[in-house]
Amino acid sequence: MKKLILCEGKTDAILLSYYLNRRRGWQKKDGRYKDPLFKVPVRNKENEYAWWYSQGEDTLLIWGVGGKDNFSYAIAQILELQKRLGTDEGFTKVAVLHDRDQAVNEQEICTQIQQCFAQQASALVLENNQWSKHSYVNGFGDEGMIEILPVIIPFERTGALETFLVDALRKNDEADQQMVDQCREFIKNFKSEKYLQTERLRVKSELSTVFAIMSPEKVFDFISTLLESIPWEEYSEIQNGFKKLEEI
User: Within 10 Å of residue 169's Cβ, how many Cβ atoms?
Assistant: First the structure.
């Protein structure tokens, strides 16, 4: 079966691939691997990340679409694919990992995702962190089934994946709590006319600062090396948050 995870960016995609490998054994396919039925329509290689993974006979595409505004484009490509393929050839499960934006609430985000699927799933009702099964008809008139999972994080407050990760690290033990609190206090009080001019950058800088304290010798490594240097699969907060996603 073919599975899909859509997320906002490279950091999300790298973390998910690492986590699902450790927790569920998903293996990265060779870089030359191309699905014969679906070429990932990446538009901006600087901001997007797309790679295929395998587990037995199943394949999984993790696609960091390059920002929340690109979810509608990515989902439209998936729906077009579903129409062209047999019901046993298309995606059977699709998860959408979305940041919890300050400007909109959880239900509004679920509704936005629903609207992206409206072409083939007009009666679909989505709930955060819950799989929803839906029937669809492909271009040949055959009926198939697809399951859709929205994962809006953090679960309890506004923020992004970086917020979710820092929260998980903070709950590890008292020393990590003190370290995270001090990093957040530093970013909160940091004033500059040149740096960290947006809330999004401040959110990202919290995780970067935490990384610099936890692994100062690796602070100049690529983000993938930093992310993979921390055993996220051992943190109960991460396990709870990604419990449904592990069912992909």
Answer: 23
